[in-house]
């Protein structure tokens, strides 16, 4: 019987998160690399510095960086492939394969090749963000905070040298100035820069690999950073591209398979994000009422119905988020199944659960503080 | 709440269901009602059953002693299935239980093999499978748990006498039959002696007859899987049974052979349009029930999905169905469980259908009308996509609920002689010499390991399974 079913059927078994070592450790500000233990970790970092690091790494291995503004894209008349990009300097850069990493506007995939865009704003209505870094205050939390607001949510990502903050909101429900005010009022430290305003349309490029051009990153689509999936999706796309790397004869099947798999990834992350918005009891704004009442994608509707009724998490082969992630959101959002597994319960279960809870607490307690694990002063 | 479950069918499927339910649901009353006639609960496919490597694990999880079962069911071990006559009238190949080769620098072995072949090296994938080499030389020992050992690179299935298997499962379940089936009406079964039995949920394990589930819609696979007649057989034989089953194609179908201690269980599958009626032939319709779970009746085994057992997959389908059913036991009336069960069951059956069709679609028997037609018949879209991608560049896309992994698909495709037009660009990044070295290293490891392995007969003898 799955653990969460036992927990659902048990009485007085404490909070679900009491049985999660990463949550316990995060709440206590502690961290230790798993060394084979059954939990994972990820990073919080400055994306600009990360890009700089990658640039140095790549250049040291022979990647040549050419700076310039692309003013024109030359397409092959017959195949429609991108032959070259023309820089403002007049220089043309040719290649067999182009990766469009130009961000949301999709310089090649959209502006030159018109791949088309599938909008998901009816399910994920946020379309603006304001980001602003501020000074650190207090301890370095080993987790990202996503706090729901009246018409969106605010992220807080603590780094060693500063804290990243941002307000993701829906312009249909909240004005830009009000959004900024809300963000500034909640900054945990003094602002370190001017606010950076972003606009986006949630969705994905209809075709992410078209001809000899593969869109990677925001050029391939946009999903808000609620579950920090952007870099993950970049990683997945790179892996799939290497798996299906063109061999020179351009069999359209390569692109077709890449697009099929990436669409699955995007749709499954999309459903996971929608879940956060849909399953809530907030009655304080039109935004949340809208999210609660909106029609869901059929794929999510079925998953949610199965969990609501029976506490079961739909499993599949491709997809970023596995059962523990879905459980955390379902239960975190108070989606409590009407009927747990009829097999749950029985003699001895309560004692086993109590022991698990105590062990989880003790293991979290034994971890060093996050600062110590990073080797920075607390 | 389900307080009482009735099972109709006292064959392998019924007793396996009984054992699984008794262990998973100690508080639930389980009644098993026997049916008359031969045990076709997994299909009329011969008196012997072959399993995939997950079955021994299932037995261990359900408290069945493997050696006791082997003794009761004249059993022996299986390292895979030999296929002859499929890739061509005289060609054969082996589908092993275990890995083939090993990846190098993140590139799959079959991609490396494609690169070597492009460089003029002739090779056979099965030569890089420990299970295949051990099978060919008649050797068997249970695999090692040590992941660093090459002896952990394979698994094993079992060959079992159907009646002995059913009897062992029955004994392990600890329950006896409630009586013999006469009729089913108004959610109640009437026994031969007139007793009526009620249950909250009925499991139909009565085979193709589908005594309870029979009224529902059936999705036919006949356009892709042409065999519609089968003749069961038993041939006594002396000596040590080979540690693998055999599927031999001929003009009008194929012959299944499952070797046991003391004889071979067999089944001759053929298409009625291509061979005159054979004595003892039974007709059967390959396909699946559109809804395996309808109302309070769940069809299991051949009552749910009827597909010729090219590889020992029928026990695996049943195993998965039982696990799914137990996980989705209705908690309240009108819940979502049956729909989810049907979605997963249909998905799994359709992917298995694709795997079975693959053997026909890629056959190399030119000139035989049945096989020529099988080669040219358009296949389901899901299989088409797999074939296209494999033929293009040796990749096998897997969908949800696949029973077989990419490696199994590749073994069949390669055995049937399907060669990708291109190989992964990444394989080109490895020097050819390093590839050749990698391949010969694996080959040497396997040969050494097989040389040190006892013969199948010696293992059977040391376990007390043969004299």
Description:
The complex is a heterodimer of chains A (378) and B (467). By secondary structure, chain A is an alpha+beta fold. Chain A has helices at residues 3-9, 21-27, 47-60, 176-185, 230-243, 252-278, 286-293, 298-310, 323-332, 349-366, 370-374, and strands at residues 70-75, 82-87, 92-94, 98-100, 117-119, 128-134, 145-149, 152-158, 163-169, 196-199, 203-205, 209-210, 213-215, 221-222. Chain A has eleven helices and 14 strands. In chain A, the strands form four sheets. Chain A has a five-stranded antiparallel beta sheet with strand order 7-8-9-6-10, with helices on one face. In chain A, α2 (21-27) packs across α10. The longest helix of chain A is centred in the C-terminal third of the chain and has 27 residues, at 252-278. The model of chain A has no long low-confidence stretch (mean pLDDT 95). With 467 residues, chain B is of the alpha+beta class. Helix content of chain B is 34%, strand content 20%. Chain B has helices at 12-24, 54-61, 66-72, 109-118, 130-136, 162-173, 314-327, 337-361, 369-376, 381-393, 406-415, 425-428, 432-451, 456-462, and strands at 4-8, 29-34, 48-50, 76-78, 80-84, 92-96, 157-161, 179-185, 188-191, 196-198, 201-204, 218-220, 229-236, 245-250, 253-260, 263-270, 282-283, 287-289, 293-294, 297-299, 305-306. In chain B, the strands form four sheets. Chain B has an eight-stranded mixed beta sheet. Chain B has a seven-stranded mixed beta sheet with strand order 6-5-14-15-16-13-17. A three-stranded antiparallel beta sheet of chain B has the order 3-7-4. In chain B, α7 packs antiparallel against α8. The longest helix of chain B has 25 residues, at 337-361. Chain B is globular and about 75 Å long. The mean pLDDT of chain B is 96. The A-B interface holds A 242-247, 249, 251, 253-254, 257, 260-261, 305-306, 309-310, 312, 314-317, 338-343 and B 1-2, 24-25, 326-332, 335-337, 340, 385, 388-389, 392-393, 395, 397-400, 402, 421-426.
């Amino acid at each position: 019987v799955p653990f969460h079913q036992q927990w659902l059927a048990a009485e007085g078994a404490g909070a679900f998160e009491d049985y999660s070592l990463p949550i316990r450790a995060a709440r206590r500000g502690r961290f230790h690399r798993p060394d084979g233990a059954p939990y994972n970790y990820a990073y919080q970092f400055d994306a600009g510095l990360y890009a700089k690091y990658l640039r140095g790494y790549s250049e040291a291995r022979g990647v040549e960086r050419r700076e310039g503004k692309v003013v024109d894209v030359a397409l092959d008349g017959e195949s429609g492939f991108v032959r070259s990009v023309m820089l403002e300097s007049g220089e043309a850069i040719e290649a067999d394969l182009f990766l469009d990493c130009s961000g949301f506007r999709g310089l090649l995939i959209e502006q030159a090749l018109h791949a088309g865009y599938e909008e998901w704003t009816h399910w994920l209505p946020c379309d603006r963000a304001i980001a602003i870094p501020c000074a650190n205050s207090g301890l370095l939390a080993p987790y990202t905070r996503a706090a729901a607001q009246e018409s969106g949510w605010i992220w807080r990502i603590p780094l060693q040298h500063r804290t990243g903050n941002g307000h993701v909101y829906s312009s249909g429900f909240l004005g830009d100035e009000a959004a900024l005010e809300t963000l500034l009022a909640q900054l945990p430290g003094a602002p370190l820069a001017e606010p950076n305003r972003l606009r986006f349309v949630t969705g994905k490029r209809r075709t992410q690999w078209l001809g000899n051009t593969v869109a990677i990153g925001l050029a391939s689509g946009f999903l808000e950073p609620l579950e920090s999936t952007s870099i993950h999706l970049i990683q997945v796309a790179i892996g799939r591209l290497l798996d299906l790397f063109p061999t020179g004869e351009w069999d359209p099947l390569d692109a077709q398979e890449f697009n099929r798999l990436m669409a699955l990834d995007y749709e499954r992350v999309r459903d996971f994000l929608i879940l956060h918005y849909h399953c809530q009891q907030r009655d304080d704004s039109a935004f949340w009422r809208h999210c609660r009442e909106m029609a869901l994608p059929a794929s999510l509707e079925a998953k949610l119905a199965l969990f609501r009724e029976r506490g079961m998490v739909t499993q599949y082969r491709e997809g970023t988020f596995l059962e523990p992630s879905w459980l955390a959101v379902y239960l975190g959002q108070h989606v409590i199944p009407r009927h747990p597994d009829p097999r749950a319960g029985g003699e001895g279960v309560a004692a086993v659960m109590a022991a698990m809870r105590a062990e989880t607490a003790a293991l979290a307690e034994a971890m060093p503080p996050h600062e110590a694990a990073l080797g920075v002063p607390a | 709440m389900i307080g009482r479950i009735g099972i109709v069918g006292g064959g392998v499927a019924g007793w396996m269901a009984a054992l699984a339910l008794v262990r998973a649901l100690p508080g639930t009353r389980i009644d098993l009602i026997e049916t008359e006639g031969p045990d076709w609960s997994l299909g009329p496919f011969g008196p012997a059953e072959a399993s995939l490597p997950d079955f021994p694990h299932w037995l261990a999880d359900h408290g069945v002693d493997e050696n006791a079962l082997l003794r009761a069911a004249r059993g022996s071990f299986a390292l895979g299935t030999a296929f002859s006559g499929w890739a061509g009238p005289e060609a054969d190949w082996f589908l092993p239980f275990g890995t083939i080769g090993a990846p190098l620098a993140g590139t799959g072995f079959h991609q490396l093999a494609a690169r070597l072949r492009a460089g003029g090296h002739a090779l056979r994938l099965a030569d890089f499978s420990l299970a295949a080499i051990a099978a060919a030389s008649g050797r068997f020992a249970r695999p090692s748990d040590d992941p660093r050992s090459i002896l952990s690179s394979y698994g094993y299935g079992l060959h079992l006498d159907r009646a002995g298997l059913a009897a062992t499962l029955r004994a392990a379940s600890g329950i006896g039959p409630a009586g013999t089936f006469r009729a089913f009406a108004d959610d109640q079964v009437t026994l031969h002696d007139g007793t009526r039995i009620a249950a909250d949920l009925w499991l139909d394990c009565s085979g193709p007859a589908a005594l309870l589930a029979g009224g529902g819609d059936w999705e036919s696979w006949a356009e892709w899987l042409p065999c519609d007649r089968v003749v069961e057989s038993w041939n006594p034989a002396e000596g040590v049974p080979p540690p693998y089953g055999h599927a031999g194609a001929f003009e009008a179908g194929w012959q299944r052979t499952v070797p046991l201690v003391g004889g071979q269980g067999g089944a001759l599958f053929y298409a009625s349009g291509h061979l005159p009626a054979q004595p003892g032939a039974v007709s059967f319709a390959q396909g699946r029930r559109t809804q395996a779970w309808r109302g309070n009746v769940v069809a299991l085994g051949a009552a749910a999905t009827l597909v010729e057992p090219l590889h020992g997959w029928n026990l695996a389908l049943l195993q998965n169905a039982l696990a799914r059913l137990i996980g989705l036991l209705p908690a309240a009336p009108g819940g979502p469980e049956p729909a989810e069960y049907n979605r997963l069951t249909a998905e799994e059956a359709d992917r298995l259908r694709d795997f079975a069709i693959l053997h026909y679609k890629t056959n190399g028997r030119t000139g035989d009308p049945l096989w020529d037609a099988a080669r040219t018949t358009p296949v389901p879209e899901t299989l088409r996509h797999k074939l296209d991608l494999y033929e293009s560049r040796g990749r096998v896309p897997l969908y949800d609920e696949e029973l077989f992994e990419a490696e199994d698909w590749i073994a069949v495709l390669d055995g049937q002689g399907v060669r990708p037009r291109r190989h992964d660009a990444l394989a080109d990044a490895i020097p050819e010499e390093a590839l050749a070295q990698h391949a010969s290293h694996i080959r040497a490891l396997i040969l050494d390991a097989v040389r040190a392995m006892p013969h199948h007969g010696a293992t059977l003898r040391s376990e007390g399974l043969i004299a």
